[in-house]
Amino acid sequence: MLETSARLLKLLSLLQSPRDWSGTALAAELGVGPRTIRRDVDKLRNLGYPVDAVPGVAGYRLGAGASLPPLLLDDEEAVAVAVGLRAAAGGTVAGIEESSVRALTKLEQVLPSRLRNRVKLLQAVAVTPSGAPAVQPDVLLAVAEACRDHQRMRFDYRNHDGTAARRTTEPHRLVNTGRRWYLIAWDLDRTDWRTFRLDRLTPVVPTGPRFTPREVPEQKAERAAYRYQARFLIHAPAEVVADQLGPNVATVTPLTATTTTVEAGSNSLDELALYVGLLGHRFEIQSPPELVAHVRDLTARLTAAVS
After folding, report:
1. Could you check whether the bond before residue 206 is cis, i.e. omega within 30 degrees of 0?
2. No. of H helices and E strands in the chain?
3. Is there a contact between 21 and 12 (Cβ–Cβ < 8 Å)?
């Protein structure tokens, strides 16, 4: 049988897992009787851990308290939290840099050396991009709650050219890539999936009615993580274009027997232009406007280089 202090730590670890535990199951895990479990639960409550009784199953769960009690983390969880705090301290979300540093300092003080070395190794080999705009925490939380609760969301959105518009959406998922946060949502006005940068978004409260989530096409979800989403009209049969690009690079949709729509995502405008430009077919850029302007500038520079 475990000593009392070790048993309490083991009990706390079990209760921190996302499930309800019956007293019988806890007793079996710890090798004690139900009466000992009840006494140990009372000890945890006296230490400030909000252990709630679960009606109907004579069980327990760890609830939310008025203050945050100490957490018991295993090795992998501790490393994950430390790495996440280091990233937050870099400023991806506005206003939490200082609190992230304080929390990281507290955590690193109690990390065993083997874990502290792992965290330092990850930090040493990771490259952190800079210069991306930060997202306000209240915006991030509001969008996350709307995604979780499946509630329609209205927001004012600043487009790339500085113009503003009111958008009404069914929010689906948050994506973080390249130090930017994006919302994948069904745009009710445009009846299509759209991606919105959170640093350009201002939520309008309250949120709208609940909705039944749509199934987002897998490739659209993958592309949504990219900074730029592009659509091209290719003057070639779809089967020819599909063989050249492959299913993991773009979505290829036949329009007519000799024309094809291609949708692709990338963090680089140059990469989008090269992907399609090197196919060897005549094409038109349908979106985004940034890519149109970029290709015009590139064309002018290339023309000047050979004139």
Report:
1. yes
2. 11, 12
3. no
